[in-house]
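Researcher: Let's run the pair from yesterday's discussion. Sequence first, then tokens, for each.
Model: Starting with the first of the pair.
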Amino acid sequence: MSEATLVLVILVAIAAVEDLRRQKIPDPVVLAIAATYVLVAILDGDRDIAWHLVCGGGILVIGLALAWAGWLGAGDAKLMAAVACWTGFGGLVPFLCATALSGGLIALALVLTGRRHRGMPFAPAIAIGTLVAFHVPGA
């Protein structure tokens, strides 16, 4: 794992812990994730930076539509968009699939243990999806 990816993982872990503690993902953490991607991409001379940002923007639009419908929190949508900037289109499918699968398993565990409540913290699932996306070949 590169140093840049380690920074991403630490920032996503902070978001997950805050979501578990307060059911809120701090905007400065989300902004740091996106800004760190841009900085790393510029320093690495990444020619695909625009496509990665388009990917993040697309996820943001879809995520905010899901938030408006009440299916996802706005903080979760913003966090997923910031991580999507890092994954780009190449790692987006593993990221989204792992996030959805782990979110479903977390929800199932909450239901089975009787701890189900409105507004499940979803950032831990996003954190798991992030880890998977950066450990899948080609992502």
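Model: Moving on to the second of the pair.
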Amino acid sequence: MKKINIAPPTGRLGVLLPGMGAVATTYMAGILNSRKRSVPLFGSVAELAHIRLGPRAEHRQPLIRELVPLASRDDLVFGAWDIFPDNAYEAAVKASVLRPEDLEPVRTELEAIQPWRGAFDRDFVKKLDGPHVKHGTRRAMAAEIIDDIRRFQQDQHCDRLVMIWCGSTEVYHQPEDVHNSLAAFEKGLDGDDHRISPSMLYAYAALKLGIPYANGAPHLNCEIPALRELANQTGAPMTGKDFKTGQTLLKTIIAPGLKARMIGVRGWFSTNILGNRDGEVLDDPGSFRSKEVTKGSVLDTIFQSDLYPELYGNLYHKIRINYYPPRGDEKEAWDNIDLVGWLGYPMQIKINFLCRDSILAAPVVHDLALFLDLAKRAGLKSTQEWLGFYFKSPLTIDRLPPEHDLFIQQLKFKNTLRQLAGEEPITHLEDR
């Protein structure tokens, strides 16, 4: 297979983060600590995972970062927007994710990261209101975001940029005519159309400049036709949506196993308690609806109830998220799964996952920054389905149904990396 020509990752890579809350500050502090104290970046596939090449007998299993040219974490610089003026150190302290011993060694570097004013409309995030916001029309705010990016790139001497949405979940809404074409969208910017969400302004600014973009939240964003059209025009890679971290990550691991062995499922009850800013935002029904849609679609696709109606056709799937301030970022996820086995005998699985939202999300942000930059340097344009491995509701080409099975996603992810390196895909037939 012919190796794809990939430009080398020379110079500095700027990582732009709309939303400098728990996830963004945990990510930045982790990278800065890894430089200063050689702290291991557990959870990062880009940093730690090996990849098999060729038949098993050849025993070729390099690190992924040895197979394809990824940017070094030493070359990363960070810029962010937020509706609160706290610098990254102050924001990290308030987020209460990391211990002081993990913040104090990098305090000076974090304090130097001052957020730009955020684009904000409380109609889209009803539970938050901050003083550090941009003013003016949609067009004016988009232009200001572009100015922020250009100034950052010049000041930090960045050779390349990526942008990853780490902000709060916006309320659920459906695409409308203003979203259906780039011409309609830009007319909406000029007319200050309030159906264009703040997060779309960031996606528009990034894609307009040809910067790779990922949406880490579940709301309507870069998948709209207008922004797909823009990404096609500028050649910017994009991916999303909604980081797959805690409870949904476990679902996409467990559900494929149950289906592979043809074990029936009658009910799957999921609830969460968390007390961070994400939990506060999701306490609003409109924002929760955005999350509910991405979390709920996972089982439908994996179980294929149209093909297996007797096994999964009557599946009752209930999802709850409860804001509980004392828990902070230490989320607790409970699942009850009602199974049906041989001769119709019932069984159950109980799961109690005590996880840390931002600790799980931070390595996802890091991997996406490196792999989106790789995609750009490899000439891969617009929707990057192979990065669906990291999302609850993966973007797909031509609006095809997404694949949610984590192991099928992983195969596609790794085979894409093999193809970029000029290696044959792994099918396991060669091992007969």
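Researcher: Give me one sentence on the second I can quote.
Model: The chain has two domains: 12-243+358-420, 247-354.
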